[in-house]
UniProtKB/TrEMBL annotation:
Annotated DDE-1 domain residues: 28-119
InterPro entries, alphabetized: DDE_SF_endonuclease_dom (IPR004875)
Domain of life: Eukaryota
UniProt GO molecular function: nucleic acid binding
Protein name as annotated: DDE-1 domain-containing protein
């Protein structure tokens, strides 16, 4: 997902036939999401990957307290990689899909992207 910085301004008309224009720095930053749902429809906490070296407190305003327990992490380019996929698996998927009966199996289906495959798993 690409987003524009807060200093951008959309100039347009209420007439749908007219085009809108974006004025501003138009700098973009990548943010990726790891989403999962169980076969019973239970939504797992998503993984949010910001471009950067470390998480910044100002990214998390008070209005977003309801999403404070999501799994946040950074990467050099804002995309997932093997390290992030393994961390999300250990910190989110495995604890939230723990079966009551330890002999029950779990199945995870991935989209086949190389960054989701690791020999560490």
């Amino acid at each position: 997902m690409a987003g524009f910085g807060l200093d951008s301004l959309v100039i347009g008309s209420s007439d749908p036939k007219r085009k809108a224009f974006l004025k501003g720095s138009q700098s973009r930053a990548w943010t990726s999401f790891i989403e999962a749902v169980t076969a019973t429809g239970h939504l797992l906490k998503p993984g949010i990957i910001f471009k950067g070296q470390e998480l910044q407190q100002q990214w998390f305003v008070d209005e977003l307290k309801q999403v404070a327990d999501w799994h946040y992490i950074t990467s050099e380019n804002g995309w997932t990689d093997n390290h992030i996929a393994v961390e999300w698996l250990k910190e989110v998927y495995l604890p939230q899909t723990q079966p009551e009966d330890e002999s029950d199996a779990r199945l995870i289906i991935l989209d086949g992207h190389r960054s989701h495959v690791s020999v560490r798993v």
